[in-house]
Amino acid sequence: MVSSPFLLPLALLLSFTLLFVFPLNQSHFSFFGDLQDIALFHRATIRTSHLVVVGSGSGGGVSSVSRLGITSNPKPKIAFLFLTNSDLFFAPLWERFFRGHGLRYNIYIHADPSVELNQPGGVFDGRFIPARRTERASPTLITAARRLLAHAVIDDPLNLYFALVSQRCIPIHSFDFMYNFLFKNSVTSLRSFSSKSTYKSYIEILSDEPNLYERYIARGATAMLPEVPFERFRVGSQFFILTRNHAALVVKERKLWRKFKLPCLGEEPCYPEEHYFPTLLSMEDPQGCSHYTLTRVNWTGCWDGHPHLYSPEEVSPALIQTLRQSNSSYSFFFARKFSPEALTPLMEIADDVIFRD
Fold first, then answer.
1. What are 70-81's pLDDT values in tens digits?
2. E-assigned strands of the chain?
3. Where would one find the signal peptide in this protein (predicted)?
4. Which whole number is the average pLDDT over 98-113?
5. Fewer CB in a 10 Å sphere around the end CB: N or C, the chain?
6. Which residues touch 107 (CB under 8 Å, ≥6 apart)?
């Protein structure tokens, strides 16, 4: 068995060797990218095994090493993971959301390289990670999310929560509201954060959807067996907020991934990104998950698998209040899906409504 310090160099050496030996067709580029992903996920798995003290306040001189170097009395951070195949239309609104909180968050962006994007500056500058092409109804969206998680895990040990959002998601609460909810206004360490039941992942996990069986057999009647029997198969939103220990679980997992990366027999009803994460976390740590999402989506009048698209005319203070409401004691933090033209009216009510909790 190859020891961990030599796995990454060996994988890269093999990749470059194959690059010169074989013609450069799409399958070889895919293989080269798969090797890069394996090396990335391996590095992230190693990084999650290193525990770092995180905390502040009256503890007396706690320090840690983050991506900015050694810091005294560091704050735990939220890593915001943007998964996009178009411009980040709502970057100005997110800039307003992040304003004044630079020591409590990081940003990572996976942008489909087959699409030419206008890269925003400000807090988004330099936060694009090496990306690969994504395609709807394919496992590429799973690997993109895993890539984001791995980069965020490696980049900063102070990243304790990981929020996956899309380019059409908007915040509907202030940063402080979200931060205080996730961390319970408490001081913690990576060790205690990973073990305390109060810190959960917020991911939708459903077992009673009407077309669940059709989704399960999308690759063939027995393709998921024996690793994933139907009674363990789950569905949920592709957008979530994971704890660091669950992010570590995702990037090192192999067994279920071998099943979920199998091609579907048709596009409908194959949405692997809505199945892999809920199924994995439900099988491995159901008690550590909320089983609900913090991203509000309106499926009324959905078309071709897409949710309702909010237009500029629909944006109002009343809409924001409605989007926050849920059937439980929690409040939604994000909402989708908004048209790019909705940015102007959203900015007009940002300070007085959206970020006023």
1. 555 678 999 999
2. 63-66, 69-72, 77-84, 105-111, 159-166, 170-171, 201-204, 241-243, 289-291, 295-297, 334-336
3. 1-27
4. 96
5. N
6. 79, 80, 82, 98, 123, 124, 127
